[in-house]
Amino acid sequence: MNKKLLILLIVLMTLSLLGIIFVQAYWIKKSIEDKEEQFYQTVSQVLDNVASKIESREISDYGKRFVALKDSVGKPSEYQIRDIFYREVDEDSREVTIYNHGILKENYNIPPSFFDNDLLGDSATTITSYTSKTVETVLKENFGMDGKSYSYTPIKKITKFGDISRFEKLQFEEFFRDIANKLPVHKRVSKEEIKLLLEQEFKNRKIEIGFEYGIYSKGLPTSVKSRKFKFDPETVNRTAIFRDTEGKTDFSLLVSFPDKKGYLIGSILGMALITFLFTTIILITYVGAIYQLIRQKKISEIKTDFINNMTHEFKTPIATINLAVEAIKNPSIIGDKEKVGRYLQMIRDENKRMHAQVENVLRISKLERNQLDISKERVDVHDIIEDAVTHVELIVSDRGGYINTHLNAKRTDVLANEMHFTNVLVNVMDNAIKYSPEAPKVDIYTESTKNSIVIKIKDQGSGMSKAVLKKVFEKFYREHTGDIHNVKGHGLGLAYVKKIIEDHQGEVYAESEKGKGSTFYIKLPII
């Protein structure tokens, strides 16, 4: 995958993820706003219902007292009926129907104590009750021989009594509302009644939230309010209460909700958590996908680099073997045993070199799959170091350098595999030699700690930057130096070192500074 395509995929995936997060955040915000609007509408309905119930209860109380006093008075002091008559004659059946509608007016003298105040003085108050009376009379008209009527025979008579509901109700309510408005508000409604009605209304609507309430008169608080009620124009819901027949009033019923935000958030918390969970999963998947894309791209580049290095590593021995074979085939040389032997030795050495490269690749592959059988035994670290030095000292001497040992550790016995541990030291020293532009200068130190032995391999080579130092033990990684083949290798040596040391329950790390050389530390537990 080329770099531009990778960047395009990352940009598109990022935009998609940001879009999903934005939509989810907008949905949550919109849900809270919708819940808040729905909540306010419900609260408004609750307040209207509570105010209506309190007003109805107040009128009902006066009505019950009025009816009780009306019954105790007995027969009204006076009454009169105002009648309206209508006569209808059926010519075929000779039936006469007379409709009679009247209004019965009854006056009652009610004592002033009924109204709980002295506004009306000591005189009795006249309360008028109106009753509707309807009479339907059907008569049969009888005629004599001369054709003139002379008598009526009653057939049926229906009498109905009823209230003049609309008129009397309006008169009653208006009268008693005017009387009630003269009373202080705490005598008209109690805090307990308001609280009970609000709780019932909220319960009926399945709203479980704490509230505070109060009644205000002309914008000022009254004594009818809950203990913690505080007026806040932005959070308080209100409705008119104790309205007159024209709908006007000086009183307002107010309700506030101290934990309104928590309630609104809690109402969508379940869905919000599910949304957050899936968004988090998408985010983690996205990050993982981006990481894998970048990692695969790096691995692809590293493998390409590795193949190029391996190809370069094999080209020289293959070319050498080719030349040696061609030389042996030359008739003038085939008879020269000394030259043939030298060419055969060259073929053997180059073949051995290629075999070592292949073995190194197979070894690191087996290590990763835990298929490499590493048996351990008691060995002396100093002996292993001396043996490893002999593998590289000729190369160092040939380049005019040196490799010195400073073996100061007192306890040197460890549990290790002699062959693999030797290869580890050889790889680290070979690395120090390859990355020394001038004559390689390598010093090896050992020192004992409480439970470990530390091997320090220090060179004065080109060193490494901090970025390279972080990746130096990764498989296939090699520092780019302009010409990729100016230092032979395939990026497996230090990866092999790390795997072997970790298998020995040890640790390996490095310190380096560009241009000032590197120091590798190998720490192993001692017996």
From TrEMBL:
Reactions catalysed: ATP + protein L-histidine = ADP + protein N-phospho-L-histidine
Protein name: histidine kinase
Residue ranges crossing the lipid bilayer per the database entry: 263-294
Domain Histidine kinase intervals: 309-527
E.C. designation(s): 2.7.13.3
GO process terms (BP): osmosensory signaling via phosphorelay pathway
An MF annotation (GO) of this entry: protein kinase activator activity
Top-tier EC class: transferase
Gene3D superfamilies reported for this sequence: 1.10.287.130, Histidine kinase-like ATPase, C-terminal domain (3.30.565.10)
UniProt keyword list: Kinase, Membrane, Phosphoprotein, Transferase, Transmembrane, Transmembrane helix
Origin superkingdom: Bacteria
SMART domains membership: HATPase_c (SM00387), HisKA (SM00388)
Pfam families, sorted: HATPase_c (PF02518), HisKA (PF00512)
